[in-house]
Amino acid sequence: MIGILLCLLSLCLVAVINTSPVILTTTPNACLNNGKYYMVGESFRPTPCEQCFCAAAGRPACISIDCAVAMCVDAVKSPNQCCSTCPNGLNCKHGDVIIKMGEVYHPDKATACQCNFGNPYLGFGSLELKANCTSI
Questions:
Q1: Residue (of 53, 59, 74) closest to 29 by Cα position
Q2: Alpha carbon of 24 to those of 6, 50, 56, 91: distances in Å?
Q3: DSSP 90
Q4: What letter does residue 85 receive in the DSSP assignment?
Q5: Which positions ≥6 away from 45 have C-beta within 8 Å?
Q6: Is 56 helix (H, G, I), strand (E, B) or coil?
Q7: What gap in Å lies between CA 72 and CA 99, rounded to an integer?
Q8: Residues in Cβ contact with 19 at an 8 Å cutoff, skipping those fewer than 6 apart
Q9: Which three-class secondary structure state does DSSP give residue 58?
């Protein structure tokens, strides 16, 4: 502590200043994410693939969204979406030709190709979307 005595024209003031550190304790009632506060109970999305809500004591509780494989060869994913979409519907490929689901492609007079998603080839995290071609 520091004592200060200030006298001015026979009037004296005495002030005592406490120099020990002051510790402020607060109970958070909000979550902070990317510089923005969310109140307890409020939902927010830090990324397109995360859904969060501000839980008790200002702690966020989040889940991650897992996307199904897009069943097309021309899938697109915009930056504000979590999962890829098929803008041209379900499709597969034979060589460089994209075939829509339900359509038949004839690369020559003796061959018919079509998409067959009844039994797709599943590998280690991959899905082969090749057309099933048969001789006719």
A1: 59
A2: 30, 33, 20, 62
A3: S
A4: B
A5: 51, 52
A6: helix
A7: 10
A8: 1, 2
A9: helix
Q: Which two tokens stand for residue 124?
A: 């280690």
Find where tokens 């590998």 sit.
123
Indicate the DSSP class of residue 74.
S
Q: Is the pLDDT of residue 90 over 70?
A: yes
Residue-wise pLDDT for 70-82, tens only, equals 889 999 999 899 9
Task: Output the six-digit token pair for 17.
Answer: 């200043």
| Residue whose tokens read 């009037």 | 11
Amino acid code (one letter) for 135: S
Q: Comparing 7-16, 43-52, 89-98, which segment has the lowest mean pLDDT?
A: 7-16
Between CA 116 and CA 108 the distance in angstroms is 19
Is 7 in contact with 18 (CB distance < 8 Å)? no
CB of 65 within 8 A of CB of 52?
no
What's the CA gap between 28 and 37, in Å, rounded? 11
Neighbours of 110 (CB within 10 A): 9
